[in-house]
Q: What sequence folds into this?
């Protein structure tokens, strides 16, 4: 297991990158929009630190933190955002659509879930031993295709870990206005075991993820990890509609970088 200092360097790398993106966005140097990962850094680092080299990662529109935690180069990512040929995808993918090694991201909400599930099944048939990790958010629970994928992954025993980052707000709509029922019940309905964490502490997320990845690999079967987290930045760019005092309170209570003082 990585030392605490290494883990916190990873958290800070993501934080500094995202702050730099927001600071520079008004300059007009980026192509398209961008969605930052401020406040959720411990999720990405906690989930992706224990993965193996041949494991596959699928991310979404809020992918910078996942990409950097996976081991991606921040300079190449910044170049990608500015449309340069030295970017991760030669400047063609922009902020949301990345591919590097076994890392994939796509901005279509929920669109990665059936693809990730299919790739997990392909790796199972190849007997590669690889686990697929798919990051989704609470907003994705409104997309019907994910439930088809959950059903197939459970029925056919896909070696996949669904990581649901519940930051309690989908774009500008609070979860209390958009989601009925219990999140974990959505997985249990398909026979997928889930574990839920209410913390932004990297030292609590990492051991749970390590065990879940081992379970997926050992049982060749899907699992889910629900991470109740908080987004400090706007949905995209500078369009945050929340009360600034609320955001300040979230930072004081849940900042993963400051949590151990």
A:
């Amino acid at each position: 297991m990585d030392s605490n200092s290494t883990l916190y360097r990873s958290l800070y790398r993501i934080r500094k990158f995202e702050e730099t993106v927001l600071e520079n966005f008004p300059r007009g140097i980026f192509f398209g929009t961008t969605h930052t990962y401020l406040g959720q850094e411990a999720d990405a680092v906690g989930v992706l630190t224990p993965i193996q080299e041949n494991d596959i990662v699928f991310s979404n529109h809020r992918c910078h933190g996942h990409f950097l935690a996976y081991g991606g180069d921040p300079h190449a990512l910044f170049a990608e955002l500015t449309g340069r040929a030295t970017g991760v995808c030669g400047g063609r993918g922009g902020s949301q659509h990345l591919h590097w090694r076994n890392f994939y991201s796509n901005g279509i909400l929920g669109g990665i879930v059936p693809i990730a599930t299919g790739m997990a099944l392909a790796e199972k048939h190849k007997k590669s031993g690889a686990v697929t990790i798919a990051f989704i958010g609470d907003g994705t629970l409104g997309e019907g295709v994910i439930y088809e994928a959950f059903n197939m992954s459970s029925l056919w025993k896909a070696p996949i870990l669904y990581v649901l980052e519940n930051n309690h707000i989908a774009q500008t709509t609070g979860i209390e206005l958009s989601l009925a029922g219990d999140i974990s019940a959505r997985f249990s309905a398909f026979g997928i075991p889930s574990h839920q964490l209410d913390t932004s502490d990297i030292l609590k997320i990492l051991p749970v993820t390590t065990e879940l990845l081992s379970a997926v690999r050992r049982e060749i079967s899907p699992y889910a990890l629900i991470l109740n987290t908080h987004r400090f930045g706007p949905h995209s760019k500078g369009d945050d509609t929340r009360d600034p005092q609320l955001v300040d309170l979230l930072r004081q209570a849940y900042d993963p970088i400051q949590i151990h003082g």
User: Anything to note?
Assistant: The two ends are 22 Å apart (CA to CA). Residues 4-254 form a domain with the Rossmann fold fold (CATH 3.40.50.970). Residues 106 and 112 are 7 Å apart (CA to CA).
